[in-house]
Structure to design on (553 residues):
């Protein structure tokens, strides 16, 4: 297949020169030292085998596939056809499918942008006109964007809205499913920014410079707890963006120590601030999801209209059923999807991934549900030359425990995207090892993987993964997928994953030694073992990628 002339825009970084490295294996053996860059390093199969026998990950299910990114040749395969939970590494497939379907697929096609609009329509009361705010899932809208929309409304000469301010929550082609959360998400997820509800209209706190790059935490508020000025003054609590739709229960007291606890009440969505705080203590800042994103957006937009000099005589209401002629008044567009990919992937962001998935469904079927998005996604991946790489998929973010993937299938995605017109932008959006901005900023910094590894990490309780590209000591680009399920020690599993990728980049590394008191034995954890064969007997594959329905396991 002829490759697109712009496909190689993403530069191949040179690996870091390393001194000769002696690799000690459990049992006293030694592997040859890694050759200098360009010398054609031997693939570190024995080193990887030893790393995967780390006793700290004993009992975990492991799948590792490594392939030559240019030829597709399989260089290493351990349980690559087994079905494992991917966590956020699933966003590799979701983002690729969205770019393939939403564009740009060639130079003449404009990249997709999410739109937020203000329109007028006849009010419920004769002789009145409602002002309607409707969105299409832009996960990066902020207070300043809604203020700009309000200024546009004022600029066209509207000073009074005789009807209601209507927040459209799904009337236009059933934009998104009424279920705001993914199948297989847990109660614990719903109290974190990753588990924020999915909505057509969203609101993120304004990004703060210096927080590891620009991050849009969709449908959350930034909650700041500041100490009282003396022992008699209670701590103060502020939220941004503030609105009456986000109730706060400040219970924290002033004390000689500081220990605050913030959480969202799973019952009514109230944000609770508990604990105690010493006078003069540093502020405590956290982000929590809002209980009702449409009401929250409505309150913020209503305040922006007031500040712009626009008076609303009617009520603020959230409505799915908005009918009649719609007269455009104002609009806002997101950055192009190729730029938005950075916000999705640099810090894997579940609400963004869910918006991308539902937008796939809406743009191609008129129905913005996860189920329709998954159907469109399967077709997009097929267009990239992939045949059913996802055995079972429940969401777009990987937050669901119902997802099952094959490590081999994820490497299929990594290979299949390389001829796409949008590939350079997508690759550039992946987190880079030891770069200042991204989820790998503090990972893979010690060794040859730093700067040459671009990959999406995945982490759920008991799950660790890393999927992406690296360059070995001979200058060969590798596509890899590493998945661990059922791990007991999360940090230890992450160390094993990072050591494995370091070995890929440098041609070898020193594996962890067995824990004291847990001596290795042939064929057991921490002991020498025969190298795994390149291919293993595959498990039976599910023949159709489809969404998981409630009650189905």
């Amino acid at each position: 297949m002829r490759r697109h002339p712009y496909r190689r825009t993403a530069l191949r970084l040179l690996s870091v020169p390393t001194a000769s490295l002696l690799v000690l294996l459990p049992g006293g053996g030694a592997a040859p030292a890694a050759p200098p860059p360009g010398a054609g390093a031997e693939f570190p199969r024995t080193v990887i085998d030893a790393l995967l026998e780390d006793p700290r990950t004993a009992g975990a299910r492991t799948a590792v596939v490594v392939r030559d990114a240019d030829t597709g040749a399989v260089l290493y395969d351990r349980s690559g056809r087994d079905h494992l939970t991917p966590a956020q590494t699933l966003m590799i497939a979701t983002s690729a499918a969205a770019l393939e379907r939403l564009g740009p697929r060639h130079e003449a096609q404009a990249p997709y942008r999410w739109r937020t609009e203000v329109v007028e329509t006849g009010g419920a009361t004769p002789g009145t006109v409602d002002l309607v705010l409707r969105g299409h899932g832009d996960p990066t809208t902020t207070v300043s964007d809604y203020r700009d929309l309000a200024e546009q409304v004022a600029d066209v000469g509207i000073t009074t809205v005789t009807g209601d301010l209507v927040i459209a929550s799904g009337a236009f082609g059933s934009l998104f499913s009424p279920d705001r959360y993914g199948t297989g998400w847990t109660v614990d997820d719903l109290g974190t920014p990753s588990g924020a509800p999915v909505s057509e209209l969203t609101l993120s706190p304004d990004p703060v410079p210096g927080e590891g790059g620009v991050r849009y935490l969709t449908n959350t508020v930034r909650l700041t707890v500041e100490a009282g000025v003396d022992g008699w003054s209670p701590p103060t609590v502020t939220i941004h963006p503030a609105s009456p739709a986000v109730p706060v229960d400040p219970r924290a007291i002033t004390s000689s120590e500081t220990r605050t606890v913030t959480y969202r009440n799973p019952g009514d969505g109230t944000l609770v601030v508990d604990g105690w705080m010493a006078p003069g203590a540093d502020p405590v800042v956290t982000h929590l999801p809002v209980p009702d994103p449409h009401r929250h957006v409505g309150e913020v937009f209503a305040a922006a209209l007031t500040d712009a000099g626009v008076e609303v005589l009617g009520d603020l209401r959230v409505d799915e059923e908005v009918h009649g002629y719609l007269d455009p008044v104002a609009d806002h567009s997101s950055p192009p999807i190729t730029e938005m990919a950075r916000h999705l992937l640099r810090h894997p962001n579940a609400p963004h991934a869910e918006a991308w998935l539902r937008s796939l469904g809406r743009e191609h079927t008129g129905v913005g549900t996860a189920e329709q998005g998954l159907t469109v996604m399967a077709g997009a991946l097929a267009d990239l030359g992939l045949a059913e790489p996802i055995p079972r998929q429940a969401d777009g973010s990987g937050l669901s425990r119902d997802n099952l993937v094959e490590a081999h299938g994820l490497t299929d995605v990594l290979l299949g995207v390389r001829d796409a017109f949008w590939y350079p932008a997508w690759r550039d959006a992946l987190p880079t090892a030891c770069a200042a901005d991204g989820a790998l900023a503090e990972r893979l910094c010690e060794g040859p993987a730093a700067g040459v590894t671009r990959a999406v990490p995945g982490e759920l309780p008991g799950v660790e993964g890393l999927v992406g590209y690296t360059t070995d000591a001979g200058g060969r680009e590798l596509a890899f997928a590493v998945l661990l399920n059922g791990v007991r020690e999360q940090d230890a599993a992450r160390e094993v994953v990072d050591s494995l990728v370091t070995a890929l980049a440098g041609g070898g590394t020193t594996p962890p030694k067995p824990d004291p008191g847990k001596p290795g034995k042939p064929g057991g954890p921490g002991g020498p073992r025969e190298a795994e064969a390149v291919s293993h007997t595959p498990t039976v594959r599910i023949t159709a990628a489809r969404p998981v329905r409630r009650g189905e396991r």
